Amino acid sequence: NRLHATDVTSSSFRLVWPQLLSQDSGFYSLEYGPGGDPAARSTLQVSGAQSSLVLSQLAPATTYEVALIPESNVHYFPPQRTRVTTLPEEISPVQVLISDSGPRSFQVSWAPVLDSVATYQVLYGPLPGNSAKLLQVDGSHNSTLVEHLAPNTTYLVTVTAIYRSGKEKSLSAKACTLEGERGQ
Fold it and tell me: What's the Cα-to-Cα distance from 103 to each of 15, 84, 176, rounded to whole Å?
């Protein structure tokens, strides 16, 4: 029955600890930071009534040292310590799918959709050629319709995930529009 972590992801985890204090008998100081870097530590004050807390916006694949210090004017409680390693960053996109192709449009979708992605950029242009156009898509979406295309043309489509951390990951796929009907 000690301080420990649950629900660990690449950017967050939940800390759970035994109920040592109450609302009236004190508060907790919570110190945490990447191991080996005292300068990067953060300190939070947590109500004595709480016995869990989610820490978020953490770095992936990093070991955090956490100390929970009960600040009580009634009893002395020794600090509780634990180490938690966040998961490696998930990568998006790992697949790009083209669907619903018509003469002048097609649907582009991708997976997975991650909280750590701020925005997606969809770059598309005819092959061969370098006249690419760019669409910006909100990071919570996983597809977009590309329109105003030329019939019977092969396009190169590149989906780039722009992470909140500033990192980028790209994946490309080819898409072919259908032949147009005569008289269009």
Answer: 54, 53, 9
